[in-house]
Amino acid sequence: MKRSDNVALSGHVEVRADATFGAVQARDVLTTSDTPGHAMKVTNRANARVQCLAFLCICFLLDSSVPSKSADCPTVPFWFQIGPSPLIINPANDTDGQGPDSGMVRDLVIDPSGSSDRVIYIGTDSGGVWKTQDGGATWVPKTDFLPSLNIGAIALDPGNSSIVYAGSGNASNQFASSGAGIYKSADGGETWVVLGASMFTNCAINRLVLPAPNLLLVASSCGCFRSIDGGQNFGNNPPLFNNGLPTLSGKITDLHVDTAFANIVYAAVWGAGIFTSTDSGANFPSSGNIFTVAKGAPANFGYLSFAQSTKPDRFTIYVNAQLTSGSANAGVFKSGLLGISWSQISVNTSDIEVLAQEVGYAQTVGVDPQDANRLYVGGRALYMVTDGGVSGITAASRIDFSKVHADQHALVFSPPSHVTGPAPTRVYNGTDGGLATTTNSGSSWTLLNGSSACFFGNGSLATGLFRRGGDGNSVAVDPLDPRHAIVSTRDGTYSTTDGGAGGTPSWGQSGNGLPSVNFLMFYDPNGQFVYAAGSDAALYQSSDNGNNFTRILLAPVSDLSMTPIDSNIIWVGLGNGIVGRTANAKAGSNANWTFISIGGRPGTAVTGIAVDPANTSQAVAVFRPSGSSTRVAFRTVDNGASWMDISSNLRGVPLNAVVIDPNTSPHAIIVATDTGVQRSMDFGATWQPLGFALPNVHCTSLAIDPSATPSLLRVGTYGRSVFELAYQQIYVDGNSTLATQDGTLENPFHTLPQGLNVPPSGAVRFVNIQSGDYAVGPITVSQCATLNALNGVVRID
What we know:
The protein is mainly β.
């Protein structure tokens, strides 16, 4: 069977899937769903019908006796993840942790049921909520299609651990404003409802706590909110608590229930102190501020995180405070009297990276629940002392170097029900690189970010190899030789000619003439020039593969577009919203530029610009909205002399990138948004989501290769790596004994986590059933999804 064939099935189909994906009974009614409202129902009774709502990915094992024949089946493209997921770290670059890395874990919670830490939920930065049921060996995403995947906090109801709360909006993220409310699940994350959307939209949620069942407290950048009905209502008006007002105003940076008395709650307020409530968060009187100058707190502070001891008593509190004046970035403070007085713990700030917080970005603190003197302090790095800070915190106290990724966000200890021995208690550490755990206070760590079984979602499981250290800005790949790449980092510009295969030694310093930081690297599609947009608001050009650069334009370039038609023609978008164009770029610093102001544009930077690959006089510029300026997409057909607003139904939607596909008629305009990818087939008159199975993630970049048919399209995301749009209708296991092999070398079915137990004969196919009702008989299938099954066969007759 060829990849382009459609498939019709008659007789019966046996459906096999791995036991870890759910449970069904053979010859019974099957309902399976990854998201609310997306279900497949298979009824195996008289007058059987198959009903598919939306599109679901299903693994079919085709019986060799089942004939295949062509049928009408529209090709619906789907997105599959190509990674890096996770990022495999080259041993030569392990000073920032050995890896694998997966991305920021902002918060986590452990189900206290049972006797071990088997069930864990994590809240990730723009990646949503993930769940493991095997202690971190495998993870499954649980919120892919909720309004925002930007998670700041997560908690379980103390009366029922199947009730999960997740707060959207992460203060550590540039997209913190994308908070969309509180997510609540009553079935362990399988289905969700959104609560408090009207109150928490555009708020960052820093902590969720429940002093009692159904009593939810929310620490947010908009205040501390209280609900007595499991999040249905919030307010400060007893006894109903439903007027929508906070019980404590200000930016609440941390929130904890007292380790001994559930009616006592402590709330940290940016720049104000730590306030105490004795009525489960109903009131936080100003007289209850325990972190004041009079008691030994610093005079000027911002973000606060704190932790309270459990044993031998509850009286010790540690505070990790962002200092807003003086030479130090942060200070660590201790009270042995529940905040009656405070003393500052010595921190040797002369040591590099000791508590180098970035305005509350990476700032946490924890105390072992079995040992009040075993203190963990996290900033850029992680430190541990066993004497309560008496000897201070120095470089010798560091426990993460070369073991765990930098930038510490969460410290959570195993619940008491799972603890069997003395201190140190197992602690979990959420960082910019993912999740790690230690049972010996950091002498050794276990990384829970996966190897072959990693954080996986839609589509294939892919990994990437860490090639070069440092926070990256942009990378450009030579269109004539993919082994040659140039990358800009905060440490400078580097290039490789072997794809970085040798780790750090493969990367040589390049970019002579460039500033230290460059936000955009771009290759001429014909391979003649390399361009860099520098932090000094200038555009640079290189004619020797990026070794040496010359400034050719003094302007804050935010995006750049060229086509293979003519290397002389460049369109640029600027940080001030202006669009520029030159028709003689090869002249370098002598090039002539025309700058155009687009009428009606928002007062924001051009986030993306694309010139039509077949007609360089036509281009599209996109923006993010600003205030009442909601027009975000504009098109010109006359070299910028005039512009048409093509925002249409995308008005007010933040747009981050744009490409034009010349292989469609008319040429499709494709944009990346904060929640997916949209496409217009009528020059912007209307827009529709492109493809399916793409999580509701921030899409930050697009790349298109029109030399393929259809064009190869990939989207870079903030939180879920890279996805590719696939039009192939059938993937077949590369180990199949069929005479005709389907699938691709890059993506044979057996590389997918769903493709377990591949049979010695026959063919496993990666397919999906179209939406609709089907009578008994032939069922038309096309491409991609996951069927949940347990130990065996689901039979569709």
